[in-house]
Amino acid sequence: MSDKAIDPVKPGSKQPVNQLLKQLIQIGIALTSERELATLLERIVAEARKFTNAEAGTLYLRDGDTLRVAVAQNDVLLERMGDREMRRQFTSEPLRLSQPSLAGYVALTGQAICLPDAYGVPKNRPYVFNQDFDLRLHYQTGSVLVVPLQDPSRDVIAVLQLINARNEAGEIVPFDPELESLVQALAAQAAVAIRNARLEELSFKDPLTSVYNRRYFTLRLEEEARRHARFAEPMSLVLLDVDRFKAINDELGHRAGDDALKETAQVILANSRAFSVVTRYGGDEFAVLLVNTPKAGAVKYAQRIRDVIERHRFAHGALTVSVGVAALPDDALAWEDLVPAADRALYVAKRLGRNAIEIA
């Protein structure tokens, strides 16, 4: 993905159409080259805000009869309450399509809405602006642009809502009407990018646990090994094996075994950094690739994961894991030797009585 900055288009400053189209093409290339769905969704909102100089933007993903906030960006609220609290406020409740709203109307009809003043919606319009959000967070919504993201079959898969366009003086102004069609073109590109990212994510995700599969792990291991060779960035691998997993299947049944694996995966995921590659490596074994992490950091991570799993109240009873740790360049000269090194350490941990950590 290109990180090249794209200058925002400021409302009120008339730029040539060919320059706007050139920026749109650059954004489209950036979106379609992004493989990670979560990163892609953030990028869609960020690029749309740059394009329109919007103070805030929200991306809703459609889930049946509801819209769920996937991304919330708001400069004013971010400065006031911080990123974590702002995200909590936005993602607390899904938006039901049966509840009148701007985003809901766009999701149901596929028609864009552009309002110079959200509070000035005429009563004869088939949509309303819900003021509850502004009242609850002491925020002031002014201009609004809401566009659908439609897949090739014209189904609305998401809705992008931009708020408060600002001019060069920083004043809230209506969204430039000339930008509306271009934002819709951006939304069309974004919809294709989301569809492709979802398909790719499915091919890289384990269907049972929803963490990455072995195929993706291998690709990332090779990719990170090249980065290690070029920039000498440390890289570590942690292998985890669920102790006595066969007994769970034999005594409680395979459904209980599947539940245990799914729950274990989610515990590992919840206690890992966003850029760590959590993988179901095979059977009851998980692999976590720790990018730009030295061996000492990997050992601390392994200790934390082992302790969290031991304390966690699993639905079908207590579980523990055995862990093997290896790192480049400490324990292997080539990336192909990293997994065998961690696997040998894992074998020792299991032989020593399980619920243990062994370092290569």
Rg from Cα: 24 Å
Q: CA-to-CA gap between the ends?
A: 35 Å
The amount of helix comes to 40-55%
* Oligomeric state, counting identical vs distinct chains: single chain
Largest sheet: 7 strands, antiparallel
**Low confidence ranges:** 1-13
Structural class: alpha+beta
What does this structure look like?
The protein has 360 residues and is an alpha+beta fold. Helices cover 46% and strands 21% of the residues. Strands 1, 2, 3, 4, 5, 6 and 7 form a seven-stranded antiparallel β-sheet that branches. Helix 1 runs parallel beside helix 6 and helix 8 packs across helix 9. The protein is elongated and about 75 Å long. The N terminus is likely disordered.
Topology:
Blueprint: H1 17-32, H2 37-52, E1 54-63, E2 66-74, H3 75-91, E3 95-96, H4 102-109, E4 113-115, H5 132-137, E5 144-150, E6 156-166, E7 172-173, H6 177-204, H7 214-231, E8 235-242, H8 245-252, H9 254-270, E9 277-282, E10 285-291, H10 295-311, E11 321-328, H11 338-351, E12 357-359
Parallel strand pairs: 11-12
Antiparallel strand pairs: 1-2, 1-6, 2-3, 4-5, 5-6, 6-7, 8-10, 8-11, 9-10
Helix pairs in contact: 1-2, 1-6, 2-6, 8-9
Task: Write a brief structural summary.
By secondary structure, this protein is of the alpha+beta class. It contains 11 helices and 12 strands.
Provide the descriptors you would attach to this structure in a database record.
single chain; 360 residues; alpha+beta; seven-stranded antiparallel sheet; five-stranded mixed sheet
